[in-house]
Amino acid sequence: MTGIVKVIITREGSVKVPTGIKLLCRRCCTAVLLEEEFDGKAEVSVTFVDDERIRELNNEFRKIDSSTDVLSFPLGENGVYDINYDTGAKLLGDIVISVPHAVAQAEEYGHSLEREIGFLIVHSMLHLLGYDHVNGGLEEVRMREKEETVLTKLGLKRNESYYME
Question: How far apart, in Å, are the Cα atoms of 112 and each of 35, 57, 88, 142?
Fold first, then answer.
């Protein structure tokens, strides 16, 4: 990667973001772009919200009236992105994470909140770069492999082995 990534991190309402999570977000975004050999400057927005807000967004944009862990809003398609003309950075899109959902999932899966949020950021960054898993099959396997490669490089590997049934 010849450029850098600017990660704009915000939180909505009274949601609390634990210490160190902002740095983790930047590390995860950078690691994905390095792994994907992304060329040039990039800009990503990460917003931390509560379950009620992510439910509203999920309903508004996906017509699914329930909360979820993360939503990704890509701004590019097929490697073509809008440009921030002040900086020359490619605008990759927005990531919205429900902190309460992430906390519950970390507990459910028996790993740290850092691992869970790291996974959600890496997962969403791959969506912003055009990867998808909705149809399953090879696409999903390839995306999962990329997620685990990046997370392992960041020291956030899974507690148990990953396999598909």
Answer: 23, 26, 36, 24
Q: In 3-state terms, what secondary structure has residue 148?
A: helix
Number of structural domains (the chain) is 1
Cα separations in angstroms, 30 against 84, 113, 131, 151 = 18, 19, 17, 12
> What is the domain range of residue 15?
5-153
- pTM of the predicted model, to two decimals? 0.90
CATH number at residue 98: 3.40.390.30
- Residue count (the chain): 165
Mean pLDDT of the 140-146 span: 90
Neighbouring CB atoms inside 10 A of 126's CB total 22
Q: Which of these ranges, 32-36, 75-79, 101-105, 143-147, has the smallest mean pLDDT?
A: 75-79
Residue 121 covered by a domain:
yes
